[in-house]
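Input/output pair, single chain:
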Amino acid sequence: MKVALLGGTGFVGHYLTEKLLQHGHTPRLLVREDSSHSFKPTQPFEWVSGDIEDNKSLRRLLTGVDAVIYNIGILREYPSKGITFDKLQHEWVIKTASVAKEQGIKRFLLMSANGVELGLTPYQKTKLAAENHLPGSGLDWTIFRPSVIFGNPHGRLEFVTMLKRDIIDSPLPAPLFYEGLIPSKPGGFELSPVHVEDVAESFVLSLDRPETYSDIYTLGGPQNLTWREILKTIAETLGKHKLMLPVPAFAPSLAAAALDRFPWFPISRDQIRMLLKGNVCSGEKIFNLCQIQPHSFDKESLGYIVENGG
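Output:
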């Protein structure tokens, strides 16, 4: 099967490409012209130089393929640069689905996110809007909603690597965030970290399974862990003991209100808001269907942070 992959050069896209190749598919990636000079694929596959905003590039990408995986997403938007949630996570999904239908492509897989139904932030609202478009698109669609994704980033952005850099390696105590003024279960909100290989495997093994059509699958790892437990596990993997102190969430939220428009500031107000709500889900439904044994969030699975200069 020839598969067009949008968002194929990032963290998850790297693993999607590798898994497609491993299972005998032919990935075709869209690579921006301004980054094609530094694009160095680890294995041979097809790629089209261009930008999704250019309809000609998108049509070249989708010509002659059997399926589409839409994996474009952002954690923060920068409207002054034309980078917005609505454009990348909603409008472009609709455009890609429309061109796919024009080209006679039926299969369409969408990367969404766990918790989008809460609609608390523009990130969630635009992801949900894209999801809501697919049932009326005429495509054989499947939607995946992962919790936080971890795994060797191969030089890209990734959840655990960022926590190591910004919190564990910092000389300051690790913050255990809590809402309100009085500490109540600081750092007690839970996440379901899911390994990137399990995410990629779920996508690829679902491609030719009709039973996955018109369905939404959450992707969570086998453990629900508190923020405190996640930071402790990362520190222990690095052989460190990290001091942790309760921090009211309004403090970083105030800082983010003033600084999150700058790319160098590590977190946005909306990211803090979503983090405090937790991000728990199960991947059992799709893992059982595809016979995937999910990775645990432990020292063995986190070994890459040591290998990558821990």
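The chain has two domains: 2-150+194-220+279-295, 159-189+225-276. The domain at 2-150+194-220+279-295 is CATH 3.40.50.720 (Rossmann fold).
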